[in-house]
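User: Teach me something about this protein's shape.
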Amino acid sequence: MASTPEEKRGGGGKMRSVSVDLNIDPSLQIDIPDAVSERDKVKFTVHTKTTLPSFVNPEFSVLRQHEDFVWLHETLIECEEYAGIIIPPAPSKPDFDGPREKMQKLGEGEITMTKDEFAKMKQELE
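Assistant: First, the predicted structure itself:
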């Protein structure tokens, strides 16, 4: 995960950790507004807004692959520092193949489908 924000370093060059209760403190807001399929990869835009002084920029976005979320989840649940804390599962990988196949059928469909079938499939894709 190369494009993480630079954090201020404490004494001895070690990274300083900051604890934030996101239920009470809105100083760190993370939003994942979209997912994009690129061949066999799914990429997400992760948008962050913060007022925490440990971040260089108050607002930034990065692209992350689905595998990055799986890695993060596995790393957090294996870390003793987070023992006893509920770590939500990594998000499921979006299925872009189903709609893609429907679009392909829809393109061919006017010849092989009834008007009702065509209209129903078109509505499902919208």
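Now, about its shape. The two ends are 34 Å apart (CA to CA). The CA atoms of residues 53 and 64 lie 24 Å apart. If you'd like, I can walk through any region in more detail.
User: That's plenty for now, thanks!
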